[in-house]
Design a protein that fits this description.
By secondary structure, the protein is an alpha+beta fold. The protein has five helices and eleven strands. The protein has three domains: 75 residues, no CATH class; 78 residues, no CATH class; 79 residues, no CATH class. Strands 10-9-8-7-11 form a five-stranded antiparallel β-sheet, with no helix packed on it. A four-stranded mixed β-sheet has the order 3-4-5-6. It has a two-stranded antiparallel sheet with strand order 1-2. The protein is globular.
């Protein structure tokens, strides 16, 4: 059933299972989403991967590389090297800071896990559960009731107006970030696709081939000269990136649509610090 509280707009009784007030439709700040998950706190690399998958985290966009020795700038990662587990950060200039290198897998995983949570919390995302201190105390003693029905109506509509403005801002940012999205041909035997700031490629004339991520194209400046368009053309002899498993993994419905990670901007991370 969950805990109960009072709606701060119409004073109806709310359960923590109610996403919105059943009476006036206002958002419930005490709503707690209950989702069955297998991994609560990971202690191995495999559990860390499963933890992220269960929560629909778009790891490429977040710049976290689990079980991978990723070489490009701006990345957090963990991988196994023989009997050692290495936790690292690649800075903006491409230099690497080693957070941990040793035999303790649980310790290594926890180091990256805590950094992952920190980056999420900095963006108002709580994959480990929303802390009590961030919840509003709805219906507390001494809260003033609306002076008249127009004030009550305005208070009811305010969250929806604010939500609309936030979505408009996100849409504007997304439009700028993705304005160069599409297919590119650098005449290097590959077809490339740019999504935001992330590059992917597949081999020429391989219509059933996989798309690979984490690579940098041969041209990083004035790459607009090689732009083929945003719409897929089967005459290229390759598979459609938007239909690929790679696209589904990073940007599909589980990791993007309707989730808190859709507006993640990796440029908000302090990439110049050691950790």
């Amino acid at each position: 059933m969950g805990s109960t509280s009072k709606c701060q707009y119409c004073e109806a009784t709310l359960s923590s299972n109610d996403k919105q007030c059943p009476s006036c439709g206002a958002p419930n700040p005490n709503y707690v989403e209950v989702t069955p998950r297998k991994v609560i706190k990971p202690t191995t690399i495999e559990e860390l991967k499963e933890y992220c998958a269960e929560r629909g985290m778009p790891l490429l966009r977040m710049r976290f590389f689990i079980d991978e020795d990723y070489k490009q700038p701006r990345a957090f990662g963990i991988y196994r090297d023989g009997d050692k587990f290495v936790v690292y950060k690649n800075k903006s200039d491409g230099s690497r800071a080693i957070r941990y290198s040793g035999p303790d897998e649980a310790y290594a995983v926890n180091e990256l896990y805590m950094k992952l949570l920190s980056e999420c919390h900095n963006r108002g995302i709580y994959p480990d559960g929303k802390p009590d201190g961030t919840r509003s105390a709805a219906g507390g003693n001494g809260s003033a009731k609306p002076a008249n029905k127009w004030v009550r109506i305005l208070q009811t509509l305010t969250p929806f107006i604010a939500f609309g403005l936030v979505m408009l801002i996100i849409w504007g940012i997304s439009s700028c970030v993705h304005r160069n999205d599409g297919y590119y041909d650098f005449n290097d035997g590959k077809v490339w696709y740019l999504h935001g700031s992330d590059w992917f490629y597949t081999l020429d004339n391989d219509s059933n081939g996989d798309w690979y991520d984490g690579s940098t194209p041969p041209v990083t400046e004035e790459y607009g000269d090689y732009y083929q368009g945003s719409d897929f053309d089967s005459d290229w002899g390759v598979s459609n990136f938007m239909d690929s498993d790679t696209y589904d993994y990073h940007y599909g419905s589980d990791s993007d649509s309707g989730s808190d990670y859709g507006g993640w901007d990796s440029s908000d991370t302090d990439w110049d610090s050691d950790w």
